[in-house]
Amino acid sequence: MSISELQMGLIGAGGVVVVGIFALNKWQERKHRKAADALANIGVQEPVAGEPAAAGGERVEPVIGAEPPPRAAPSDQQLRDASARRVPPLLPPEVDERADWVVRIESIESVVAGQFCHAAAQQLDGLGKPLRWFGFSDTENRWEPLNPHGAIRYHWLCAALQLVDRRGAATDADLSRLTAGLQRVCDAFMAIPSPPARAEALARGAELDRLCAGVDIQIGVNVVARDLAFSGAKLSGLLHSAGLELLDDGCFHSRDDQGLTEFVLSNLEPVLFSAEAMRGLTTPGVTLTLDVPRVADGVRVFERMMALAQQLAESLGGAVVDDNRAPFGEKASGLIRAQIDQFQGQMAEQGIPAGSPLALRLFS
């Protein structure tokens, strides 16, 4: 190639590079302008026009159809800051990767927790498994549970779908419904959801469900009247003296120092107990039930439950029997203690101690 041809070739190559750089700059300007226009048209991220910004714990509700107040489009610096923002830890501490399917969400501009949760509730109504929300606090540098009525703003959020409860494992339809609903919400808030792979989560949920089914037992004993039916007034007095509390579910609950239920006492007949009706009520018997996976130190709680059953039988003129009305003796009690030890030991080996926060979620 001659010198003149070489020079012409270099000039041509330089022109291509210049054109490429110019095109790239125009593409970035168009992208930033499109993002700014979209942010300016979104009304659900701002507080209601005319109202002052709420404090962190106050309720903030979006107004459907209300004209959003004018807002400044994000500058190039804001967009660069969003791109350079530190990525938070993968999971909030309250989330367990074995039991939860977590979808992380990043927003170019911060979103109001209450408004996002309100929009999500509309899109995800009827979801078949419990769903928890978290936001990453830039000031505290940690994940925190979202206040569904709060006005705190977040750039990062995550939705944690519980994969297993007593109704069984989550299905592909559950995960698909969550993914589709979140996408619609994120489209409105200029946010980007990042759902993990579904197949792995479904397999993990099915395995965890099998483990839970193998240790999901409840222990029940009955105290039945020998001759005269039990007086509701006398029964209520004995139970209050023993520290049990009548709750809205129509059962008396024995609770630990943290307020968690250890065992419950219910009517043997299909009639719920109520404070108003106890004085005039009579019943042929009561049932005491211990939910083994939900109670720490199950053997100790079982012994306390049996002591109360024996006390009631002696005070009310009854007998402690099993579901077949056979006397509940020491031999039966010993077998049950061994079962409780066995099942709670299996739970501990699987990293799900009985009565732990994770066990309470899974066995609900």
Q: What is Rg?
A: 30 Å
Domains (count): 2
Uncertain runs are: 6-69
CATH fold node name of the largest domain? Cell Division Protein Zipa, Chain: A
Let me know the number of strands.
15
Largest sheet: 6 strands, antiparallel
Which whole number gives the mean pLDDT?
A: 83
The separation of the N and C termini measures: 81 Å
User: Helical element count?
Assistant: 9
Give a quick precis of the structure.
With about 375 residues, the protein is an alpha+beta fold. The protein contains nine helices and 15 strands. Helix 3 (about 115-125) packs across helix 4.
Characteristics:
364 residues, alpha+beta, Cell Division Protein Zipa, Chain: A, 2 domains, five-stranded antiparallel β-sheet, 9 helices, 15 strands, 41% helix, elongated
Q: Your description of this structure?
A:
This protein is an alpha+beta fold and 364 residues long. The chain folds into two domains: 76-211, Cell Division Protein Zipa, Chain: A, CATH 3.30.1400; 216-362, ZipA, C-terminal FtsZ-binding domain (Cell Division Protein Zipa, Chain: A, 2-Layer Sandwich). The protein has nine helices and 15 strands. It has helices at 3-40, 76-84, 113-123, 172-189, 198-215, 232-241, 298-316, 330-349, 357-362; strands at 100-112, 131-137, 142-145, 153-162, 164-165, 168-169, 191-194, 218-225, 230-231, 245-246, 252-255, 261-267, 282-283, 285-291, 318-321. Mean pLDDT is 83; it is low at 6-69.
